[in-house]
Write a structure and sequence with these properties.
This protein is α/β, with parallel strands linked by helices and 386 residues long. The chain has two domains: 2-182 and 368-385, Rossmann fold (3-Layer(aba) Sandwich); 192-364, 3-Layer(aba) Sandwich (Rossmann fold), CATH 3.40.50. The chain is 48% helix and 14% strand. The strands form two sheets. The protein has a seven-stranded mixed beta sheet with strand order 3-2-1-4-5-6-7, with helices on both faces. It has a six-stranded parallel beta sheet with strand order 10-9-8-11-12-13, sandwiched between helices. Strand 1 (2-6), helix 1 and strand 2 (36-41) form a beta-alpha-beta unit. Helix 7 (192-202) packs across helix 11 (279-285). It is globular. The protein starts with a strand and ends with a helix.
Length: 386
């Protein structure tokens, strides 16, 4: 088998889809069945998987490029010109690779004469456009129908999203496969001594905080989490501050102002983007993990917290019941009163916490990246038969 894997998402900052692509690529590199593996970024083929770790100056440059791209997205003329030129260049680069399977792990598929597989992580841009910048919704509305026409097989991260895509697109159900994600082996329980060096650098204390990790954006319901946390007794908030780890996202100006205010009051600590090497340590050191998102295509941070033996409070929306397996405390994302009570229990109820640690670790162990890679390989074989 010959394979081209799109790796545009493997870049700083390495957020959800980038991490999925990176872990998948590392697993595919070990598969002897793949005789040739090429990577595709922008409109260029690459022999090696990009590394998402950047120096300080490279990070600043990446932030600048990202800002420029966001500005260009706001211009419909610029987007149209960019799409047209990019499509021509991509077709030219892939012209001689018709005997390769092309996998687009981030929705999009370029012009390719061979079989194509696309991963659709969720349909939030259509189901909840209010959570996204309007320019992104417009761009996705143009690109996703193209990907559906080009795709031989579609992958999703969970059964919930699989059913959504079948209903939304009418794509043949037998060619839409659910491949659940997994926490990497770096996410595991750690002792105080294993965590202390990273925690000192980040300025937090072992088992003295509740963690939220994710991009700062409306879909994650961080505002609701702050509402719930503000209702906790002051002594609890101060003893177990809410630590927010995540890259600055879109439509988050008011939220950031509120985070700054809560940080000044001493019950929130905002770390910004946390590097991959530090993130599993931060998870392991938390007293509890809170993730009351309105909508997720899978909810990998929930599984990562469980793999670290950390009790989880999350919403019961979309795919999160699949990710949590019923071992998290959960409620409607808009039910702030219940969310507050669940946070108290996750922090203070030692009996439930002990059960949650055992059950969470066992549940997370039923997911693996070797399974993700194997089932993704199955999708490639299926695409080759169509």
């Amino acid at each position: 088998m010959k394979l081209v894997l799109g790796v545009d998402a493997v870049r700083y900052p390495l957020t959800g889809i980038g991490r999925y692509t990176y872990e998948l690529a590392r697993g595919l590199e070990q598969k002897s069945e793949i005789e040739h593996l090429r990577y595709f970024a922008g409109h260029q083929l690459q022999a090696a998987l990009p590394e998402p770790h950047l120096s300080g100056s490279e990070q600043a440059r990446a932030d600048s490029v990202r800002s420029m791209k966001l500005m260009l997205l706001k211009s419909r003329l610029a987007v149209g010109l960019h799409r047209g030129l990019k499509s021509v260049l991509q077709a030219r680069a892939l012209k001689s690779l018709k005997d390769y399977v092309y996998h687009g792990p981030n929705y999009y598929l370029p012009p390719h004469g061979g079989p194509c597989v696309a991963t659709f992580h969720d349909l939030s841009m259509f189901k909840h456009p209010e959570f996204h910048p309007p320019e992104r919704v417009r761009y996705m509305a143009q690109e996703l129908p193209v990907a559906l026409k080009r795709a031989s097989v579609l992958l999703t991260d969970c059964e919930y999203t699989r059913q959504e895509i079948i209903e939304y697109s009418g794509f043949p159900a037998d060619r839409v496969l659910s491949v659940p994600l997994a926490a990497s082996g770096d996410f595991r329980p750690r002792t105080h001594d294993e965590c202390i060096a990273v925690l000192v650098r980040l300025g937090v204390e072992y088992k003295r905080f509740v963690l939220f990790a994710g991009t700062i954006e409306p879909r994650k319901n961080i505002s609701g989490l702050l509402d719930a946390y503000e209702r906790l007794p002051e002594a609890t908030r101060k003893h177990y501050p809410l630590v927010i780890a995540g890259y600055r996202g879109w439509r988050s100006e008011e939220l950031h102002a509120r985070i700054v205010s809560a940080q000044e009051q001493g019950w929130v600590r905002h770390l910004g983007f946390v590097h991959n090497a530090d993130l599993p340590v931060l998870f392991s050191a938390a007293q509890a993990f809170a993730f009351p998102s309105f909508y997720e295509g899978f909810g990998l941070p929930v599984l990562e917290a469980m793999a670290c033996g950390v009790p989880v409070v999350c919403s019961n929306a979309s795919s999160l019941p699949e990710a949590s397996g019923g071992y998290a405390l959960s409620c409607d994302p808009e039910d702030i009163e219940t969310l507050t009570m669940l946070l108290v229990r996750a922090i203070e109820d030692e009996g439930w916490r002990a059960e949650a640690r055992i059950n969470g670790v066992a549940h997370a162990a039923t997911f693996s990246w070797s399974r993700v890679v194997s089932e993704t390989m199955h999708s490639y074989r299926l695409a080759l038969t169509l």
